[in-house]
Amino acid sequence: MKALIYNGAFDISFESVADPEIEDGQDVIVQVGLCSICGSDMHIYHGHADAFTDGKGFCVGHEAVGEVVETGANVHQLKTGDRVMLPGSIGCGACRNCLRGNVRACLNGKRAVFGLGHALQGSQAELVRVPVGDYNLGIIPDGVSDEQALMLTDAQSTAWFGCRNADIVPGCTVVVIGLGPIGLMTVESAFVKGAARVFAIDPVSYRRGRAQQLGAEVLAPDDAVEHITAATNGLLADSVIEAAGSDATVTLALKLVRMEGTVSMIGVNHNMKFPFPLGAALGRGLTFRTGTTSVAETWPELLPLIQQGRLNPAQFITTHLPLSQGADAYKLLDSRAEGVVKAVITP
Prior knowledge:
Helices cover 31% and strands 26% of the residues. It has 12 helices and 18 strands. The longest helix has 13 residues, at 295-307. It has 2 domains: 2-154 and 294-346, Alpha-Beta Complex (Quinone Oxidoreductase, Chain A, domain 1), CATH 3.90.180.10; 156-290, 3-Layer(aba) Sandwich (Rossmann fold), CATH 3.40.50.720. The chain starts with a strand and ends with a strand. By secondary structure, it is α/β, with parallel strands linked by helices. The chain has helices at 39-48, 96-99, 133-136, 146-151, 155-165, 181-192, 205-213, 221-231, 247-256, 278-284, 295-307, 326-334; strands spanning 2-8, 11-16, 28-36, 58-59, 63-71, 83-86, 89-90, 112-113, 127-130, 138-139, 173-177, 197-201, 217-219, 237-242, 257-265, 287-290, 317-322, 342-346. α9 (247-256) links the parallel β14 (237-242) and β15.
């Protein structure tokens, strides 16, 4: 089969590799119909996954939808031809946390992420093996398109997780920092959760324009503190969702949240020495939450919202390319080219 292979920083190649095979009776092989590039894939692209390469490349990607083409002997809920979506991360499917949908806290230590190394090859490929397929795959229901389902494999789920962690209640004021695909989905999700006012911050004018179309009040980072302070009569925001991951944006989030407000961080930050202002946070009674979402846990909430048209995550797909041009897709996203938000790849 063909696949996108990570070989090192800024080096993604389109290669022929061996087809995945059933390795366990609970495995399912999926023929990928659509896959996409996530912001965390860009962290891999920038070299943060070099520790997992072992001197050889691996297939990247963790957002995909497709069709079941082969099942192991112990797969009972899925059959050949089923339309399915792959959550970005998976679990054992047997412990009490996984059975609640919380693969992040898998008690058997079997939480794994597609496309982060050799242990579980990624889904930017023609085929992908899914362990414990009955548990770790979701059937795409009627009324949900492949593109909508694709956004549910990580991006929209992460945006919803970020809003849930932000303690959004009807009538509150929300700030979203970072307007990539997940940030824009977070803006839309905040309104669905009842936010009366959403401020959206990003240095890229095109992204601010997309957020404004959703109803947000948009700002460049340098203007944010002064403007939001004035707009809220000094109270600041009830909830701030940080979706960029830099030291500067985390610091900004802490400046924009009100006394006893909540900061929800879903951006990825690799700085293990970030100087968190613990004393100030304690004195102001702040709640600070972070973490990665257990994708499938969000599906019961999100699928009806998409079927009803209240959420439309597919609107942020701006770019379609074939798998053979996957390396170009990574370069395009890395350049932050005008008009590019979310890239979808067709094997």
